[in-house]
């Protein structure tokens, strides 16, 4: 099992006219976890832990390209490599 960790954001909107600067939001939560050995009709238990996500606010219509840098860690949290992902969003008026 591997884990990815997003650690840098660079956008094509340097003056932040289309979206606000993305920020990391840390949240505590209770998340479902399937129990082992319950194939067919899985049973779940819960696990409490802190997680995070990136958030932003749309300011006006346009197109924004993101450049996310992240690292891949193995189940022992050893670094496996670095990757970059360049998705985009098109913001349109409703």
Point out poorly predicted stretches: none
Mean pLDDT: 87
| General form | extended
> Helix-strand pattern, N to C?
EEEEEE
DSSP strand content: over 45%
Indicate the structural class.
Answer: mainly beta
| Biggest sheet overview | 4 strands, antiparallel
Helicity level, as a percent range? under 10%
What is the gyration radius calculated from CA atoms? 18 Å
Q: How many E strands?
A: 6
Description:
0% of the residues lie in helices and 60% in strands. It is an all-beta fold and 94 residues long. A hairpin with a 5-residue loop joins strand 4 and strand 5 (79-85).
Strand and helix map with partners:
Layout: E1 3-11, E2 23-34, E3 44-55, E4 62-73, E5 79-85, E6 88-91
Antiparallel strand pairs: 1-4, 2-3, 4-5, 4-6
Keyphrases for this structure?
mainly beta, about 90 residues, about 60% strand, 6 strands, about 0% helix
Short structural summary:
The protein contains no helices and six strands.
């Amino acid at each position: 099992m591997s884990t990815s960790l997003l650690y840098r954001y660079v956008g094509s909107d340097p003056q932040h006219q289309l979206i606000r600067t993305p920020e990391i939001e840390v949240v505590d939560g209770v998340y479902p976890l399937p129990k082992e050995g319950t194939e067919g009709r899985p049973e779940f238990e819960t696990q409490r832990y802190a997680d995070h996500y990136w958030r932003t606010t749309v300011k006006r219509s346009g197109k924004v390209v993101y450049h996310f840098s992240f690292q891949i860690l193995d189940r022992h949290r050893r670094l496996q490599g670095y990757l970059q992902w360049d998705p985009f969003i098109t913001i349109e008026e409703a």
